[in-house]
Amino acid sequence: MRHLVGTVVFGAICFCVPHQQVHDLGSFFRVLFTESFGVFAEWPAAWASLVVILLAGCVFCLVRALDELLPLFNRECFSAGVFYGLMLLPVLLFSIGSFLLARALF
Question: How far is CA 55 from CA 48, 76, 95, in A?
């Protein structure tokens, strides 16, 4: 149950907190793909990268919540292969977000 709460908290942070929109670019994905990343301390791109990292935390908590809630509904848990396969998405999102954060700041 705590992972479901974590999903809600991370989701609220990712999508309810206003983004650093200097040029009225829209969503944070558009900021990631339109910023130059060549300028030192590109803050809109850094903020969008942090949102991607938080989104990775949200996906991680969602997968863990599904894994914990399935036995409550008399369903079987994920097999180890499916569980680790689903965990690849948050790991990839975290890696991409960390790379883009480093690229935006340095």
Answer: 10, 27, 12
Q: Per-residue confidence of the chain (106 residues) as pLDDT tens digits?
A: 677 777 777 777 766 666 655 555 566 666 666 666 666 777 777 888 888 888 888 888 888 888 777 777 776 766 777 778 888 999 999 999 999 888 888 8
- CA 58/CA 82 separation, integer angstroms: 18
Task: For residue 42, give both structure tokens.
Answer: 């590109």
Instruction: Count Cβ atoms within 10 A of the Cβ of residue 74 and give its class: 0-12 exposed, 13-18 middle, 19 or more buried.
Output: exposed
Measured CA to CA, the distance from residue 61 to residue 105 in angstroms comes to 27
